């Protein structure tokens, strides 16, 4: 079939990979010269550990697909490095213990580590903590280079064309019209427009059950040593559904978050890039209209937490940024799919799970549509 895909982020690109792998011809439209949204403003984490029970199978499948892609496309920078969620209080330790003893702990790759075991696994962690919840199945890719690497691989098949710098303005009878007057006839149209909920998306699908979420992140200069796993703090327990239970209820009741972390709906996630710098975040802002400023208190707070875990001063901050992603209002949905007309689909709303779940979502779409 001829497949036209609108949107050059991780969802659009993952669907292009799936379509080409099934033998179809793909034309891929992106309004920018290069994807600039949440798909490149993230950690690059393939985060299995925190997924809900309903999402876990998809997350494990997606990790498998990323690893298979990496065998052919080393440029995506896949590393099966795992993660450690570091614990600072007895209540946090209790949540980790409950998770490590859960029925699906082996399926998630959970192991509860003593401080010495944490340092043996990740020697860069020389600071203070009571222990760590290790997830052996978490992984990472290089978010800023994965999409170009995937496109280069697709282009080499002869069945893929990337068309940057054009904005899709309309779809009529499976023919996409762009803002240059060009038309792209197809048998199937997939609209993966990310956090752009208006314009063509609203025209095709109306008001979808999605919201936008804004986040702040930063990246350091090279650390000068290897951080062998991604790291998180136990505030992440409050945001990821895998940790729901009596111990988390007790934590929420008895231990308030730091005021800065609570105000900005924060958790610490930190992963080392291939160039040695650390990507650190993040905050969550839900109420629009979003401001255009980035705020210093969350950055200061995150620096202090990472330095506490490392037991050393961080390198200088190289850059800071904000991003916006699209999130399904129903937390039990992986993604929002709408079929406004035959053979035209709008796919959006994976939230902060886009890099984790992108390949699996694309595979599910292909199976659902039957292409």
Automatic annotation (TrEMBL):
<comment type="similarity">
    <text>Belongs to the DadA oxidoreductase family.</text>
</comment>
<dbReference type="InterPro" id="IPR006076">
    <property type="entry name" value="FAD-dep_OxRdtase"/>
</dbReference>
<dbReference type="Pfam" id="PF01266">
    <property type="entry name" value="DAO"/>
</dbReference>
<keyword id="KW-0560">Oxidoreductase</keyword>
<dbReference type="InterPro" id="IPR036188">
    <property type="entry name" value="FAD/NAD-bd_sf"/>
</dbReference>
<keyword id="KW-0285">Flavoprotein</keyword>
<dbReference type="GO" id="GO:0005737">
    <property type="term" value="C:cytoplasm"/>
</dbReference>
<dbReference type="InterPro" id="IPR017741">
    <property type="entry name" value="FAD-dependent_OxRdtase_HpnW"/>
</dbReference>
<dbReference type="GO" id="GO:0016491">
    <property type="term" value="F:oxidoreductase activity"/>
</dbReference>
<protein>
    <submittedName>
        <fullName>FAD-dependent oxidoreductase</fullName>
    </submittedName>
</protein>
<feature type="domain" description="FAD dependent oxidoreductase">
    <location>
        <begin position="2"/>
        <end position="368"/>
    </location>
</feature>
